Amino acid sequence: MVRGIGDDCAIYRPRAGEELLFTTDQMIEDVHFTRAQTAASIGERALARSLSDIAAMGGEPRFCLVALAASDTRWIEDFYRGLLPLAKRTGAAVAGGDLARAEKYHCDVMVCGSAPRGKALRRDGARVGDSIFVSGRLGKLWDRRIQPRLALGQNLRGLATSCIDLSDGLSLDLHRLCVESGVAAEIDRVPVTRGSTEDRALHGGEDYELLFTMPEGAAAPRGVTRIGRVVRGVTGEIHFQGRLLEPRGYDHFRKQS
User: How many CA atoms within 13 Å lie on the side-chain side of 127?
Assistant: First the structure.
């Protein structure tokens, strides 16, 4: 970072051989959070959601921009008390953003990350015969603390053939990965968080684990779970334990049950 907060724009000078990754994620009151939650937890979560996207690309965080609308200055200060420690731990320097007054609270965190040229993980590389893995148990409570899998994503560079973060549910996000790769999938098991259900693990969303594929027989990182394989078939179609699985994870524009 050449210049952060202080001018009209931040200045970032990329390193040689580095490709930049950009992502942004909104959090809206009464959609993604309520005011009953602490502002600090919301601030941390707002950044963590975007960092999870960087992790899914195998990237390293470089900086973030924070746009925030709220009516309570103390709430805003507490929001940053949650966001700033995570930014420091992960190297996502707060380079700027915007503040506005609004009765309905809203934030949007943009993160810039980087990966070596040609090494970023993508959704379109899965091939027939690949094994499918997830990085942790699924079906977590929607408001639990997010741990972006940044180290795992970076370790998967050059190993994984495709990757996506699980923000909207396994069924929907695996469907998206298969569509991008032009393949189908068969899954035979789902690791379920204690106290949750298989249905929530398949469709609930808000897990922020990594879903990735690797060539069959390749040594997978420790701590991940193999859940199935990539197969030939109708593009985007997923079978779970022999039955067709509907991709009904979280969709903002579809009425949720």
Answer: 6
